[in-house]
Amino acid sequence: MTIVVQIGDLTKIKCDAIVNPANSFGFMGGGVAGAIKRMGGTQIENEAIAKAPIPVGSAVFTTAGNLPCSYVIHAPTMEQPAMRIGIENVKTATLAALKLGVELHLSSIAIPGMGTGVGGVPVSDAAQAIVDIAKGFEKKIDKIILIDRNQDMVTSFKKFI
Protein backbone atom coordinates (compact mmCIF):
# COMPACT_ATOMS: atom_id res chain seq x y z
CA MET A 1 0.00 0.00 0.00
CA THR A 2 1.01 3.53 -0.58
CA ILE A 3 -0.06 6.45 1.57
CA VAL A 4 0.16 9.61 -0.50
CA VAL A 5 -0.13 13.09 1.00
CA GLN A 6 -1.03 16.05 -1.16
CA ILE A 7 -2.47 19.51 -0.99
CA GLY A 8 -5.52 19.92 -3.16
CA ASP A 9 -9.26 19.71 -3.65
CA LEU A 10 -10.88 16.45 -2.51
CA THR A 11 -13.69 16.95 -5.02
CA LYS A 12 -11.28 16.86 -7.97
CA ILE A 13 -9.27 13.76 -7.08
CA LYS A 14 -9.53 10.70 -9.32
CA CYS A 15 -9.86 7.61 -7.13
CA ASP A 16 -12.41 4.94 -6.25
CA ALA A 17 -13.94 6.83 -3.32
CA ILE A 18 -13.61 10.00 -1.29
CA VAL A 19 -14.47 10.25 2.40
CA ASN A 20 -16.97 12.77 3.69
CA PRO A 21 -16.54 13.55 7.41
CA ALA A 22 -20.31 13.57 7.81
CA ASN A 23 -22.93 14.05 10.47
CA SER A 24 -25.35 11.28 11.46
CA PHE A 25 -28.26 12.91 9.62
CA GLY A 26 -26.48 12.93 6.24
CA PHE A 27 -27.00 16.68 5.83
CA MET A 28 -24.25 18.21 3.68
CA GLY A 29 -24.36 21.91 4.47
CA GLY A 30 -20.89 23.23 5.13
CA GLY A 31 -17.21 22.40 5.19
CA VAL A 32 -16.04 19.35 3.26
CA ALA A 33 -19.59 17.99 2.95
CA GLY A 34 -20.85 21.25 1.48
CA ALA A 35 -18.03 21.26 -1.09
CA ILE A 36 -18.82 17.65 -2.05
CA LYS A 37 -22.49 18.53 -2.54
CA ARG A 38 -21.72 21.70 -4.54
CA MET A 39 -19.36 19.88 -6.91
CA GLY A 40 -21.04 16.48 -7.04
CA GLY A 41 -24.71 17.39 -6.90
CA THR A 42 -27.59 17.22 -4.45
CA GLN A 43 -28.28 13.56 -5.24
CA ILE A 44 -25.28 12.67 -3.03
CA GLU A 45 -26.91 14.36 -0.04
CA ASN A 46 -30.32 12.85 -0.89
CA GLU A 47 -28.81 9.34 -0.90
CA ALA A 48 -26.96 9.98 2.38
CA ILE A 49 -30.12 11.28 4.10
CA ALA A 50 -32.03 8.20 2.89
CA LYS A 51 -29.46 6.01 4.71
CA ALA A 52 -29.60 8.07 7.93
CA PRO A 53 -29.29 7.93 10.82
CA ILE A 54 -25.65 6.92 10.40
CA PRO A 55 -24.10 6.41 13.85
CA VAL A 56 -20.66 7.81 14.61
CA GLY A 57 -18.36 4.81 14.20
CA SER A 58 -20.11 3.51 11.10
CA ALA A 59 -20.08 4.51 7.44
CA VAL A 60 -22.28 4.30 4.37
CA PHE A 61 -21.59 4.89 0.71
CA THR A 62 -23.45 6.77 -1.98
CA THR A 63 -22.88 7.39 -5.64
CA ALA A 64 -20.60 10.30 -6.46
CA GLY A 65 -22.74 12.34 -8.81
CA ASN A 66 -20.56 14.60 -10.96
CA LEU A 67 -17.34 13.87 -9.03
CA PRO A 68 -14.44 12.03 -10.71
CA CYS A 69 -14.67 9.12 -8.22
CA SER A 70 -17.13 6.23 -8.04
CA TYR A 71 -18.35 6.60 -4.47
CA VAL A 72 -18.59 8.96 -1.54
CA ILE A 73 -18.09 7.24 1.80
CA HIS A 74 -19.98 9.11 4.52
CA ALA A 75 -18.28 8.52 7.88
CA PRO A 76 -19.84 10.66 10.60
CA THR A 77 -17.49 12.45 12.95
CA MET A 78 -20.47 14.05 14.72
CA GLU A 79 -24.10 13.27 15.42
CA GLN A 80 -25.51 16.71 14.61
CA PRO A 81 -24.20 19.30 12.15
CA ALA A 82 -21.60 21.71 13.58
CA MET A 83 -20.96 19.81 16.83
CA ARG A 84 -17.70 20.10 18.73
CA ILE A 85 -16.11 16.64 18.93
CA GLY A 86 -13.14 14.82 20.42
CA ILE A 87 -10.34 12.86 18.79
CA GLU A 88 -12.13 9.54 19.37
CA ASN A 89 -14.74 10.57 16.80
CA VAL A 90 -12.02 11.16 14.20
CA LYS A 91 -10.53 7.74 14.94
CA THR A 92 -13.83 5.86 14.73
CA ALA A 93 -14.89 7.70 11.55
CA THR A 94 -11.58 7.00 9.83
CA LEU A 95 -11.69 3.34 10.82
CA ALA A 96 -15.30 2.97 9.63
CA ALA A 97 -14.51 4.60 6.27
CA LEU A 98 -11.51 2.36 5.60
CA LYS A 99 -13.36 -0.79 6.69
CA LEU A 100 -16.16 0.06 4.26
CA GLY A 101 -13.56 0.65 1.56
CA VAL A 102 -12.24 -2.88 2.13
CA GLU A 103 -15.78 -4.31 2.02
CA LEU A 104 -16.34 -2.54 -1.32
CA HIS A 105 -13.00 -3.90 -2.63
CA LEU A 106 -11.75 -0.40 -3.41
CA SER A 107 -8.15 0.11 -4.44
CA SER A 108 -7.94 3.87 -3.79
CA ILE A 109 -9.55 6.13 -1.19
CA ALA A 110 -9.01 9.85 -0.59
CA ILE A 111 -9.39 11.15 2.97
CA PRO A 112 -9.40 14.82 4.00
CA GLY A 113 -8.59 16.19 7.42
CA MET A 114 -11.54 15.17 9.57
CA GLY A 115 -12.97 16.93 12.61
CA THR A 116 -10.72 19.97 12.35
CA GLY A 117 -13.30 22.47 11.11
CA VAL A 118 -16.41 23.01 13.21
CA GLY A 119 -15.51 19.85 15.13
CA GLY A 120 -12.63 21.73 16.74
CA VAL A 121 -10.08 18.88 16.84
CA PRO A 122 -6.50 20.21 16.64
CA VAL A 123 -5.01 19.64 13.18
CA SER A 124 -1.97 17.75 14.48
CA ASP A 125 -4.11 15.40 16.61
CA ALA A 126 -6.46 14.62 13.72
CA ALA A 127 -3.56 14.04 11.32
CA GLN A 128 -1.85 11.62 13.70
CA ALA A 129 -5.07 9.66 14.27
CA ILE A 130 -5.89 9.43 10.54
CA VAL A 131 -2.34 8.37 9.60
CA ASP A 132 -2.12 5.79 12.40
CA ILE A 133 -5.38 4.16 11.32
CA ALA A 134 -4.47 4.32 7.61
CA LYS A 135 -1.24 2.45 8.34
CA GLY A 136 -3.35 -0.43 9.69
CA PHE A 137 -4.80 -0.93 6.22
CA GLU A 138 -1.44 -1.46 4.47
CA LYS A 139 -2.31 -4.88 3.05
CA LYS A 140 -5.97 -4.14 2.40
CA ILE A 141 -6.12 -0.98 0.26
CA ASP A 142 -3.63 -0.21 -2.50
CA LYS A 143 -3.60 3.56 -2.19
CA ILE A 144 -4.79 5.94 0.50
CA ILE A 145 -4.59 9.59 -0.49
CA LEU A 146 -4.53 12.07 2.40
CA ILE A 147 -5.58 15.33 0.82
CA ASP A 148 -6.54 18.72 2.14
CA ARG A 149 -6.68 22.34 1.01
CA ASN A 150 -5.16 23.44 4.32
CA GLN A 151 -1.35 23.49 4.25
CA ASP A 152 -1.17 22.93 8.03
CA MET A 153 -3.18 19.73 7.65
CA VAL A 154 -0.97 18.49 4.81
CA THR A 155 2.20 19.33 6.77
CA SER A 156 0.79 17.44 9.77
CA PHE A 157 -0.10 14.41 7.64
CA LYS A 158 3.49 14.31 6.32
CA LYS A 159 4.89 14.59 9.85
CA PHE A 160 3.20 11.33 10.90
CA ILE A 161 3.79 9.20 7.78
Distance between the termini: 13 Å
Write the CATH homologous superfamily. Leucine Aminopeptidase, subunit E, domain 1
**What characteristic shape results from the CA principal axes?**
globular
Q: Rg to the nearest angstrom?
A: 14 Å
Profile the largest sheet. 6 strands, mixed
Structural class: alpha/beta
User: Any low-confidence stretches, pLDDT <50, length ≥5?
Assistant: none
Mean pLDDT: 97
Order of strands across the widest beta sheet? 1-6-5-2-4-3
By DSSP, the count of extended strands is: 6
Strand percent estimate? 15-25%
CATH C-level: Alpha Beta
Describe this protein's structure.
With 161 residues, the chain is an alpha/beta fold. It has a single domain (2-160), classed as Leucine Aminopeptidase, subunit E, domain 1, CATH 3.40.220. It contains five helices and six strands, in the order ββααββαβαβα. Helix 3 packs parallel to helix 4 (123-135) and helix 4 packs across helix 5 (151-160). The longest helix has 17 residues, at 87-103. The chain is globular and about 35 Å long.
Would you kindly provide a brief summary of this structure?
With 161 residues, this protein is of the alpha/beta class.
List the defining traits of the structure above:
161 residues; alpha/beta; Leucine Aminopeptidase, subunit E, domain 1; six-stranded mixed beta sheet; 5 helices; 6 strands; globular
Topology of helices and strands:
Elements lengths: L1 E6 L9 E4 L10 H10 L1 H9 L9 E4 L7 E4 L12 H17 L4 E4 L11 H13 L7 E6 L2 H10 L1
Parallel strand pairs: 1-6, 2-4, 2-5, 5-6
Antiparallel strand pairs: 3-4
